[in-house]
Design goal:
52% helix; 4 strands; 8 helices; 2 domains; 7% strand; alpha+beta; glutathione transferase activity; Glutathione S-transferase-like; globular
Length: 230
């Protein structure tokens, strides 16, 4: 049994939840509001960011990238041909490149600002940075979503999955970030049919079901969020 300190709409936490689901691992979720900077949470991860995974008799495992590597080393071989991080070195490099692209670049330019402005700030005290959303930040992030969606579409048109022939951590990372902002209705799916079709495939996987059950009081989900045939 693993314990994951997460926020339901943290894109990085969602990526880890999808990875754990694909590995078929039991999970206990603990919701964390990182802006509160709880002393007990900072003891687990001094950076104060989600996600953080707790495994029995091991140090706390902070950060989506570190958790991804831990899961592959601990449970990857058991998946055989379905391993989320392939065994061939060139393929592993490409998966790692794309995971970093989505967890760093996409997060910084699009999903992170949108989730912060439209979700987190609703629950933050003024001294923690709460208040009305910054519309200039939202406009810039929404514009950036279009560029990233086009890149996903290009990958989806040239490969079976984003990093190659089979599902990998790269698909889970991209889908996790898109799912968080799709809840808000900030993904222009009509602009790229290849990206839309790829996302529908990933979204239909059993590992995705717990994410689609997440709801935020006062913020209705977009029409496409739970519609598998959108």
């Amino acid at each position: 049994m693993y314990t994951l300190f997460h926020h339901p709409f943290c894109p990085l936490s969602r990526f880890v939840r999808l990875a754990l689901g694909e590995h078929g691992l039991d999970l206990r979720l603990v919701e964390e509001r990182p802006w509160e900077r709880r002393a007990a949470f900072l003891a687990l991860n001094p950076a104060g960011t989600t996600p953080v995974l707790i495994a029995d008799a091991r140090p706390a495992i902070p950060g989506a990238g570190v958790i991804c590597e831990f899961l592959d080393e601990s449970h990857g071989p058991a998946l055989g041909d379905r391993r989320m991080l392939p065994t061939v070195m060139d393929d592993r490099i490409e998966v790692r490149r794309l995971v970093a692209w989505f967890n760093e670049k996409f997060f910084e330019e699009a999903s992170g600002p949108l989730v912060t402005e439209r979700i987190y700030k609703r629950f933050m005290n003024e001294e923690d940075g709460g208040g009305p959303p910054a519309m200039d930040v939202i406009r810039a992030a929404t514009a950036n979503v279009r560029y990233h969606l086009a890149y996903i579409g290009w990958l989806a048109r040239t490969r079976n999955f984003l990093a190659g022939d089979q599902l990998s951590y790269a698909d889970l990372a991209a889908a996790a970030h898109l799912s968080a902002i799709d809840y808000l209705g900030d993904v222009p799916w009509t602009e790229d049919e290849a990206a839309k079709a790829w996302y529908a495939r990933v979204k239909s996987r059993p590992s995705f079901r717990p994410l689609l059950s997440e709801w935020l009081a006062g913020v209705p989900a977009s029409r496409t969020y739970v519609d598998l045939d959108f």
